[in-house]
Amino acid sequence: MLPWEIVAARPAPALERPRKSLIKFCNSCGASVTHRIPEGDSLHRAVCDACGTIQYENPKVVVGCLPVRGDRILLCKRAIEPRYGLWTLPAGFMENGETLEEGAMREAMEEAHAQVEIGELYTVFSVPHISQVHMMFRARLVNDDFRAGIESLEVKLVTAEEIPWQELAFTVVRRTLEHFLEDRARGQFVPHFGDIRAPVR
Fold first, then answer.
1. Is the domain covering 60-195 a CATH 3.90.79.10 domain?
2. What are φ and ψ of residue 42, in 5° steps?
């Protein structure tokens, strides 16, 4: 069974309770909103008391890539919160008007001034407790002309042995790197899908 078939075979879990909406005013007319379940819906929404517009809040898409040159991987040390000073792969929120691939290329340029050729979509992780979906591509670093962008303290190429596992910023990055090294060792890359849940407190 392939990784995406395993995920598809699982029963759908109950929706995690999202963080409380911060919307107070209508984005159409500016009037106050009420948080309630609209007729014909099943979830609480911010509904305008004046014009009836429903303010939908949907998950954010985070897109990025795993840039490789030879046997080394490009990592970025974060210069912004969250996880300031920890290592990550170039990634960020997708912008309106761009494709997934364009977003991944833009993030590599913004964070590492790196030119990349985007390859296959490699990992997709749902992160429901923060209402995000992370999509990471495999990529080829075109040349060694890279440097830290405004959101990075440092960027560098590392071998598998040099990955700073204890200083990785996000679980998505850790799991993407783990899948990559396992797939590379066996000589076959396959897409990976999964969920990252909030830690139990």
1. yes
2. -130, 0
